[in-house]
């Protein structure tokens, strides 16, 4: 029985790619005196901002981040939008009596800039960067479960990065990879996601353990794209488990 679903924020709930790219570009431009190539920035948005700024050529990325990232983030916050279908999925989970939480590397003061609207009312708790040792450590996932009073084996974590998968498995929860976020289905599958989803509508089916599961992932060379409403699981992630995912579980802009 599943009692809770945890969500990463950036990429899973909020499409923040344009926001993060614009913020990184502004900070880099202020320091370098020139605007970095947008393609180079786009390839770095999945990384922690300080790391991305260092790759873009800033000699003091920590200082640049401290001095300018929050201001740039606030200036471009309107570029972020809720992922289509995510609110409906959350409402369906709530109707089925499940508890919900956000587990994010994002700092709390930035969340207020994102205009989450009804998402805030549908969440039972938010675990942010300030609340626990950040992912890939299991601490924020465990903190959310503690607040929800739900054991790990009764929870799913929906994430879109390798960091999410590592943190979730370390906490003992099953992880659903969200292929609409910052990482591709292939990356999520190879990282060991228990299931790879291609649409938020699939979250309810997985949480209720009613999903039709196909081997492979959307766009896989070894399997065709999953039909709408189905969830895709890699053969490596399945192991010896029942292929309906009814049993067992695997051991910032995110």
Name its key features.
elongated, 2 domains, Rossmann fold, 254 residues, 14% strand
Quaternary state reads single chain
Derived structural class: alpha/beta
Would you identify the regions where 5 or more consecutive residues have pLDDT less than 50? 212-230, 232-251
Mean pLDDT: 86
Strand content: 5-15%
* Shape, principal axes of CA atoms: elongated
Q: What CATH architecture of the largest domain do you see?
A: 3-Layer(aba) Sandwich
**E-strand count:** 10
The domain tally reads 2
How many helix segments? 12
Q: How do the strands line up in the largest sheet?
A: 5-4-1-6-7-8
| Major β-sheet profile | 6 strands, parallel
Q: Using only CA atoms, what is the Rg?
A: 18 Å
**Helix/strand order:** EEHHHHEHEHHEHEHEHEHEEH
- Distance separating the two termini: 27 Å
Question: Percent helix among the residues?
Answer: 25-40%
Q: Mind telling me the CATH class of the largest domain?
A: Alpha Beta
CATH topology of the largest domain: Rossmann fold
CATH-level-4 superfamily name of the largest domain: HAD superfamily/HAD-like
Q: What does this 3D model show about the protein?
A:
The protein is of the alpha/beta class and 254 residues long. 39% of the residues lie in helices and 14% in strands. It contains 12 helices and 10 strands. The chain has helices spanning 17-32, 38-42, 49-55, 61-75, 86-95, 108-111, 118-122, 139-148, 162-171, 185-190, 202-207, 235-238, and strands spanning 4-7, 14-15, 81-82, 99-103, 125-127, 155-159, 174-178, 195-197, 213-215, 231-233. The strands form 3 sheets. Strands 5-4-1-6-7-8 form a 6-stranded parallel beta sheet, with helices on both faces. Strand 7 (174-178), helix 10 and strand 8 (195-197) form a beta-alpha-beta unit. The longest helix is centred in the N-terminal third of the chain and has 16 residues, at 17-32. It starts with a strand and ends in a 16-residue tail after the last helix. 49% of the residues are buried.
């Amino acid at each position: 029985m599943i009692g809770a679903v945890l969500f990463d924020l950036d990429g899973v709930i909020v499409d923040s790619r344009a926001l993060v790219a614009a913020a990184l570009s502004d900070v880099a431009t202020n320091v370098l005196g020139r605007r970095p190539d947008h393609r180079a920035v786009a390839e770095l948005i999945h990384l922690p901002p300080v790391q991305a700024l260092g790759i873009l050529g800033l000699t003091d990325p920590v200082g640049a981040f401290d001095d300018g990232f929050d201001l740039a983030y606030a200036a471009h916050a309107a570029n972020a939008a809720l992922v289509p279908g995510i609110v409906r999925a959350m409402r369906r989970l709530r109707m089925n009596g499940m508890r919900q939480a956000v587990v994010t590397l994002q700092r709390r003061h930035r969340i207020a800039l994102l205009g989450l609207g009804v998402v805030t009312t549908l969440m039972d708790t938010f675990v942010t960067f300030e609340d626990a040792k950040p992912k890939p450590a299991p601490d924020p996932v465990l903190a959310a479960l503690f607040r929800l009073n739900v054991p790990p084996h009764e929870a799913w974590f929906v994430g879109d990065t390798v960091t999410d998968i590592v943190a979730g498995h370390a906490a003992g929860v099953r992880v659903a990879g969200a292929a609409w976020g910052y990482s591709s289905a292939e990356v999520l599958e190879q990282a060991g996601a228990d299931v790879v989803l291609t649409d938020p509508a699939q979250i309810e089916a997985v949480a209720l353990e009613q999903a039709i599961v196909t081997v492979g992932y959307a766009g896989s060379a070894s399997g065709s794209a999953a039909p709408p409403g189905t969830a895709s699981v890699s053969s490596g992630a399945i192991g010896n488990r029942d292929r309906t995912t009814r049993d067992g579980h695997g051991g910032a802009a995110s």
